[in-house]
Specification:
This protein has three helices and five strands; from the N terminus they run ββαββαβα. By secondary structure, it is of the alpha+beta class. It has a five-stranded mixed β-sheet. Strand 3 (about 100-105) and strand 4 (about 105-115) form a beta hairpin. It is globular, with a radius of gyration of 18 Å. The two termini are about 25 Å apart.
Amino acid sequence: MPVSFEVDRKYRHLLIDPDIPETEQDPLIGLNQTWLEPVRFRPIFQNIEIKAPHGKEEESKTQSIIWASAQLRKLEELLKAVPDHAKKATEHELIPPIPIISVTNHTWRFYALEGNAHVAEMAQPGSAPPPAAFLWGPLEIGSTVNVIGIVIILRALDLLMDWGVTVYRPWFVENILKPLSKDANTEW
């Protein structure tokens, strides 16, 4: 289940042409990798994949990586849509790692998917191209088999929410929302 911060409907104008009825607009336009209307304009910063009891960790991990990779591609696409005059001096500010939580049976594991744009630019001529992204983890967060494990999981989720508000959201606003906005006076 994706966790997102709310982007008010007034920011839809960044990507939606007001002169064209929404039913005729490209359904793939949005601020994240899904075109599902309730979350299309709510940037996702954390991905949680939960498997039913006796689910397979490898399947959960694979699905999480595919989803987070799509998110990484969407962020790269949004960064490329930023007009040249609005780009930061560092050109493309590095995309923060994408947190992933994989839950299988009672065990909660943390991964982070990190884009590799900066490594690709530094690759030596003639060398093999670096992978598009790095997956860090797993780090076992906790287990729901006892109260202590549940408290640890809740604290980890709290820390991730703090990261989303204090790190990811400011990055998203500065590097994507503000540069795409037509109104420099918009309050973020």
